[in-house]
Amino acid sequence: MGRFHRHADGTVHNHDEHGHDGHHHTRPRNRSGRDVGDHSGYETGTERIMVLEQILGENDRTAAANRTDLARRGIRTVNLMSSPGAGKTTLLTRTIPALAEEYRIGIVEGDIATSLDADQLSDLGAQVALVNTDAGFGGECHLDATMVRAGLGRLDLDALDLIIIENVGNLVCPAEFDVGQDARAMVYAITEGEEKPLKYPAMFRAVDVVVVNKIDLLPHLRFDLHAFRSSLDAVNPGVAVIEVCAETGAGLDLWLDWLRSVANASPGT
Ligand SMILES: Nc1nc2c(ncn2[C@@H]2O[C@H](COP(=O)(O)OP(=O)(O)O)[C@@H](O)[C@H]2O)c(=O)[nH]1
Ligand SMILES: [Mg+2]
């Protein structure tokens, strides 16, 4: 939550500690020690931080309620994230029919606006609940636990085993909000550039699996898969990586196996 200066370890940085007299002894630096500029003029006061902590505290309470409700029914839940266009919906159009005989699947489809993705996923054998974040939720760039709870309320939970939440396309905010999921997955398309794990570490660090999509485009791009893997390793060592072409279904089996491992685990693990 960079604009509020909340750090990955959960601490919140308050600029008032440095004073606002323009005389800063320590200028902000990034991990490699490079001066990243004086951003002390940004008003990030105690009050704002308290509001933020209340919001996140409220979110975590609702996420815990979601998790308890889902676990009680034996439902396992995956939070699927990515930047816009990486291929989440395409992957789901293949995933739902492939697993529909093994699991009763529900989809919570998060989009800022439109029912375009939800429409694509209907009639594939899953229950689909659309959550538009611009309809009463302020056009948020992510799903939070309350929005997911609203989506869950429109699914027949007693008739479900596995819920996949397609989060709003964004590489920053969705990683910061626990929605009550059992596991987090992301789709990353090779058209996005191999350095993205370094630029968006919170997202790449938050996930349990990275589905590397659009592998069919490899011959057409200047993309170094090894460089990507080492960027990813730098922020999330040992994370599962599955290469797929969601368009054709190549590599899908390993993704389906990963989903089975989540779906078959005991509730609460
Ligand atoms: N070449 C290629 N295009 C893909 C692949 N998967 C998705 N796409 C395309 O990428 C675009 C965005 O896909 P979509 O599933 O809507 O991404 P989302 O925004 O993450 O849900 C669409 O035009 C898809 O057809 C793939 O494996 N290869
Ligand atoms: Mg989509």
Summarize the structure.
This protein has 269 residues and is an alpha/beta fold. It contains eight helices and seven strands, in the order H-E-H-E-H-E-H-E-E-H-H-E-H-E-H.
Beta-strand content bin: 5-15%
Note the gap between the termini.
27 Å
**Overall form:** globular
The unique ligands bound to this protein are: guanosine-5'-diphosphate, magnesium ion
Describe the largest sheet: 7 strands, parallel
CATH superfamily: P-loop containing nucleotide triphosphate hydrolases
**Total number of domains:** 1
Structural class: alpha/beta
User: Would you count the extended β strands for me?
Assistant: 7
Number of H/I helices: 8
The SSE order reads: HEHEHEHEEHHEHEH
Radius of gyration: 20 Å
Q: How much helix, percentage-wise, in residues?
A: 25-40%
Identify the strand order in the major beta sheet: 3-2-4-1-5-6-7
- Enumerate the spans where pLDDT stays under 50 for 5 or more consecutive residues: 1-11, 13-24
Mean pLDDT value: 88
CATH topology: Rossmann fold
Describe the structure.
- The protein is α/β, with parallel strands linked by helices and 269 residues long.
- The chain has one domain (52-264): Rossmann fold.
- Helices cover 32% and strands 15% of the residues.
- The chain is built from eight helices and seven strands, in the order H-E-H-E-H-E-H-E-E-H-H-E-H-E-H.
- The chain has a seven-stranded parallel sheet with strand order 3-2-4-1-5-6-7, with helices on both faces.
- Helix 3 links the parallel strand 2 and strand 3 (127-132).
- Helix 1 (46-72) packs parallel to helix 4.
